[in-house]
Specification:
The protein folds into two domains: 97 residues, no CATH class; 151 residues, NAD(P)-binding Rossmann-like Domain (Rossmann fold), CATH 3.40.50. The longest helix is centred in the last third of the chain and has 17 residues. It has nine helices and twelve strands. Strand 7, helix 3 and strand 8 form a beta-alpha-beta unit. Helix 4 crosses helix 5. With 285 residues, the protein is of the alpha/beta class. It is globular.
Amino acid sequence: MSTTPLELGAAEASRLLLQTSAEGGSAAVGTVVGASDGAPQHRGARMALVRHPEHGASTHGSLGDPSADAAAVERLAAALDDRRARDGIRALHVGDRQIEFYVEVRRPIRELVVVGAGHVAQPMAHMGAMLGYRVTVLDDRPDFATRERFPEADRLVRADFSDPFADVSLNERSFLLLVTRGHKYDYECLVRALRAHPLPAYIGMIGSRRRVRATYVQLLDEGIDRALLARIHAPVGLDIGAETPEEIAVSVAAELVMLDRGGTGVPLREVERVADRFFKDQDNI
């Protein structure tokens, strides 16, 4: 990890956040806003932790002493490691002092990468755009990945499935959906996705139980760690009895929202149980 110990100004901190996010990385900036002893000397001091897909991790700025800097880096790293972390004040404990540290987090733009431009891909791209994802559609068939079929996609990529992500940079905010027309294409995509660093936030693959099993066997034979198989959502989506392409897209979109927001997938009626909680006497319902 490289370090830039110079003073970090507000303008430079904002630039780091925006530029890192735009380039597919993550960054967190922390600013001292108060201290338990009321000492003003470090108020306004900033530190940043940047994780860049090409340049690795680096720190910028300083809070004025090594102990505070170490505590700040720990807090910033924890914020980046927590995919649901929000901006807000964290406490830094430095010796017998407590420093109020306001942390801002920026991550790459959420991107839905749909591999395969068939019937399921069309409603899926539409749903992804509605949910605010930047949508990329990949296919090796020029007549399928067209603007007419995918008007809401941000990018249409003519891909070679032997190296499917040559023109697409996967990152920690990539949501990857495999809806290809064949097992061999799923396999090529999965091998590369599971070897990406960092891993995509989501890897989903459509397919029957037999197709999924055959893919898993081939991945294990290739030397892919079995623990990584747990990162694959296959068959994809929530169990809502989906059959049509549009219903499958709803099922997958619901799973994406559930994972991104920390939901359970349980019907809200069962979660809230209003009738049981507020109407003990069924005659009064």
